[in-house]
Amino acid sequence: MKLSVKDAASLLKVSEDTVYRWVKEGLMPAYHINEQYRFNRAELLEWATSRQMDIAAQDFGEQPGRAAQAGLVDALAAGDVLYGVKGDDKPSVLRHIIDHLSLSEEVDREFLFQVLLAREALGSTGIGGGIAIPHVRNPVILNLARPAVTLCFLEKPIDFQAIDGQPVHTLFLLTTPTIRAHLHLLSRLGFVLRDPEVKAALARQAPREELLAMLARAEAGLALPGASANNAPGNGPGNISDNIPGRGPQP
């Protein structure tokens, strides 16, 4: 779906002038069509989530009455928690992770590796705070039976060109069969990663069962009325533009 500037501003809860400014500075994914800017909704939600913006759960398609999507903890159970992931740089770390993923024989691991590298070339998936969320931009091409999230703790932090410049020590690798499942899990990750107890557990590389229990507790907060990434535990109100690299508060 191609959104207008007005649609994008409404989705991100900013002014149209701010949207124009972000586009002109190359901070925001946009298309120039017939002398007008247009935005892909899935790309825009992905971009906003990677910058931990205040996006409500319903904006990701989690409306009542729809078939239930797999939760974050379910997807983690389908994936795994890997400790001591080796690698000196982004390609070697991703290679090590892909070699250890639980995938069906139909999934070409080499193809997945190349697609992940291509995605990183478009822009780092490092969201700051030592965390990255590598994923395929178009999940459908993987031909997967179900969504999975693999939590990976690196043996040593590496430069991931993250938005805050900090080296990355923790990865959440997303593999999903549909764009809707992809955005659903991204929205839930964006929410739980605002929880200070979750971040502390990730920083000390807590045991698998403890992590799953803590993430389940944090994810349950999404069921509360009005839940969004910006009002996760430990967060007060803030200006959305404060999370944009290189920008101060905007009107």
Structural summary, described in words:
- The chain is an alpha/beta fold.
- It folds into two domains: 69 residues, Arc Repressor Mutant, subunit A; 160 residues, Mannitol-specific EII, Chain A, CATH 3.40.930.
- The strands form two sheets. Strands 4-7-8-6-5 form a five-stranded mixed beta sheet, sandwiched between helices. Strands 1-3-2 form a three-stranded antiparallel beta sheet.
- A hairpin with a 2-residue loop joins strand 2 and strand 3.
- Helix 3 packs parallel to helix 7 and helix 8 packs antiparallel against helix 9.
- It is globular and about 50 Å long.
- 35% of the residues are buried.
- The C terminus is likely disordered.
Write the layout of secondary structure elements.
Blueprint: E1 2-3, H1 5-12, H2 16-24, E2 31-33, E3 36-40, H3 41-50, H4 72-78, E4 80-85, H5 90-99, H6 109-122, E5 126-128, E6 131-132, E7 148-158, E8 168-175, H7 179-192, H8 196-203, H9 208-219
Parallel strand pairs: 4-7, 6-8
Antiparallel strand pairs: 1-3, 2-3, 5-6, 7-8
Helix pairs in contact: 1-2, 3-7, 4-9, 5-6, 8-9
Largest sheet, strands/sense/barrel: 5 strands, mixed
Percent helix? 25-40%
Number of E-type strands: 8
Q: Would you state the CATH class of the largest domain?
A: Alpha Beta
CATH topology of the largest domain: Mannitol-specific EII, Chain A
CATH architecture of the largest domain: 3-Layer(aba) Sandwich
Radius of gyration: 18 Å
Shape call: globular
Number of domains: 2
Q: Low-confidence parts lasting 5 or more residues at pLDDT below 50?
A: 62-67, 228-251
**Whole-number mean pLDDT:** 80
Determine the number of helices (DSSP H or I, runs of at least 4 residues): 9
Helix/strand-derived category reads alpha/beta
